[in-house]
Amino acid sequence: MRELETDWWFLSLPEDWQVDQDDDSIVITDPDEVGVITLTSLITDGERDIEAGLKDLMASLGVESSQVESTMLGDFDGYYQEFQDGDDWVREWYLGSEHCLLLVSYDCDPDNKMMDRELVDDILDTLSLKA
Asked: N or C, which end of the chain has less CB nearby within 10 Å?
């Protein structure tokens, strides 16, 4: 495993997964190019109520609180949902910890939605805040 590090958090990735980064997001692709994990960090200026920040984030994305369930990944708490969106199967996490909110999604073909499920969960469970 290798470590992917940003200014605010880090996570562990299998060696054969590819990472690309643009101004807003980090895109991680599995070796077979079947699925893609996208992580978008939203940084707050000061101390903020994480729960309120998560509710605002979900509201801005049109996500109903009745559609999500509570979750915890590594150092982050938040909410999770999965659904079909056109030709894609989507798993989304809305996560927060201290000054960082994260929008995380995993997109793949619906026929492959179970292929990397456990590995994606294992990768995201390594999410840790930088000290």
From this structure: C
- Residue whose C-alpha is closest to residue 58's, from 47, 46, 74, 69: 69
pTM comes to 0.90
What pLDDT score does 48 carry?
67
Amino acid of residue 42: L
In one-letter notation, the amino acid at residue 13 is L
The domain that contains 117 carries what CATH number? 3.40.1000.10
What domain range is 114 assigned to? Answer: 2-129
Q: How far is CA 96 from CA 2, 30, 88, in A?
A: 23, 25, 25
Kindly tell me the burial class for residue 96, based on how many C-beta atoms sit within 10 Å of its own C-beta (0-12, 13-18, 19 or more).
buried
